[in-house]
Amino acid sequence: MTARYELVDEDDRLWRPGLGDLVRLRTWDIFARFLVGQGHVVDVGGGPGTHAAHLAGRGYDLVLIDPVARHVEMARARSRSQPHAPFRVELGEARRLPVPDQTADAVLLMGPLYHLVERDDRVAALREAARVLRPGGDVLVEVIARHAWVLDATMKGLLGSREIWDDFDRSLRLGLSQDPAQPAEGGFWAYFHRPEELRAELEDAGYRDIRLVAVEGFAWLLGDLEQRMVDPADLLRAVRRTETEPSMLGASAHVIGVARNP
Question: Which of 85, 99, 163, 206 has its CA 20 to 30 A from that of 64?
Fold first, then answer.
């Protein structure tokens, strides 16, 4: 994972015209409706700080924690660039947060759960988030949907490759983005969830009032997405109308679970 993010510009992903705009604006819309109105937020695996900068600008007291040194440097630079709304940045990882018990009003995990490919590690990260949450605090957790790679590869015209079908077989059976016996250096190493798996993991970690929300929904499959995102209000409204429909969750590339710490 570290090798991947030393090579790839994670910041660019959320600002790319079309799909990047869709992911960023939909995520911020979900934050606006499901996060507490104010308070202390811990952004775990927050990368270069796109979401942290946005939430700090909305008045949240925020600390970003990431295991990639390059991301920590980039996030600190971003915080310095907005002195009117700074946020703190620390090096750390999801299973061992450098945060005291019961001090956060909300915890975000917008990446750790798909980079932790073992279920026990994912549940440990969720329990660690519960440790730092105040009673009644909320966790927002993002995962990649199980069929996202099949949909993405189809849109990119990759179905003529024999190797792609082996990839599909593994990812659909095991949820793994790569063969664990032969991982590619700097490749994307992740676990792809079925929506019901995310719900079960949140339940096992002790959370209640669980809601699953599609991020991109069906919109990322549109061939003219970049053009539509020039004036996205109606498209975003349509995605919001379908965001919690169980039959639509699997068509989204990402799903966010929102849950409460008892």
Answer: 206
Give tens-digit pLDDT for 119-154.
999 999 999 999 999 999 999 999 999 999 999 999
Tokens 């600002």: give the residue. 15
Cα–Cα dist 137/260, whole Å: 6
| Eight-class DSSP state of 261 | -
Task: Look at residue 109 and give its three-state secondary structure.
Answer: strand
Alpha-helical (H) ranges within 65-116 are: 69-81, 112-115
Long-range contacts of 116-120 (CB under 8 A, 24+ apart): 116/191, 117/175, 117/176, 117/180, 117/189, 117/190, 117/191, 119/201
Q: Above 80 in pLDDT, residue 185? A: no
Whether the CB-CB separation of 214 and 238 falls below 8 Å is answered with no
Mean pLDDT, residues 69-77: 96
- Tokens coding 262: 């008892």
pTM exceeds 0.85 for this model: yes
The token pair that represents 21 in the structure block? 């705009």
